[in-house]
Fold:
Amino acid sequence: MKRLAVILLITVLAAGAVTLVYENRKTETTETTAGKTDEPTEHSATEHGASTEAADDGGTHRHMNESNSEGDHAGMEGMEGMDMEEDAGFQAVLAAAGDGLKAGQDSELTIRIQDDDGAPVTKFAISHEKLLHLIIVSEDLRDFRHIHPGYDGSGVFRVMTQFASGGRYKWFADFVPTGSSSVTRSGWLTVDGKPVYDAPALQADSSLIHQVEGTQVELVMGKAAAGQEAELTFRFRDAASGKEASGMQNYLGAAGHVVIVSSDMEQYLHVHPADSQQTAGPEAKFSTTFPVDGLYKIWGQFQRDGRVLTVPFVVKIG
Ligand SMILES: [Cu+2]
Structure:
């Protein structure tokens, strides 16, 4: 009897030791994955003498192209790959290096930020971990990129990118000159090469539940009319289990980023979580105001287990 008790005790102790080892190994794996991120390394921009005060820019960067002809710069012809927008105080001049932009080829874009005298703006505040956010969307709203040019100093930002198809693209640059509030400038660029001819006309999604890389993302939007505050709630579930998604992480210092462009590309909204203290989790809440009725394409960007998920939705307002 006593002998049996001793054997039993030894067995229990041995089982305990095995469990401990396993737990340690599991934690290690999770940590490694969390470190990896999709973002190209443009952090170098922050070391180039730009001031490092954080800019409080919760809510929405809004850009509406009032003076259409001005903004669109139909006069782009003859200045291949070059475009400029002038407005109160700041200009953004985007240009393509070399002999213009060609589909399927790496292209270098430079963006020069100038004040209204044309002098370079050299001091910027960091906004959502970056000095400049560059959003580029193809005219058919199929191709979307949110990239972060590196800062070279003297008001010049530079980034390499590649366009899959030819055609017209609209760019939006968000930045915060020191001492100023957040500024958005935009313009058009043309890429040489075969455009996508058969792009289906944009139409509102019949379902606002999409799946990206093993994560199901649902957009819950109350009834939104132009000019009224609209709540956008994104819910994340694990596509395999249907359970609330684990591993959601902040992306660029926020629970997520939402970029909204109207179907005529006149309206641009870059929206951050309503509560800037909100951290990533199975749900992320945003609020914004759609300026006019119509169709809008929404790109939600979130991070899960080190991977940036970009989820597009098309909604009809009004
Ligand atoms: Cu950005």
About this structure: Helices lie at 2-35, 68-72. The chain has two helices and 20 strands. The mean pLDDT is 81.
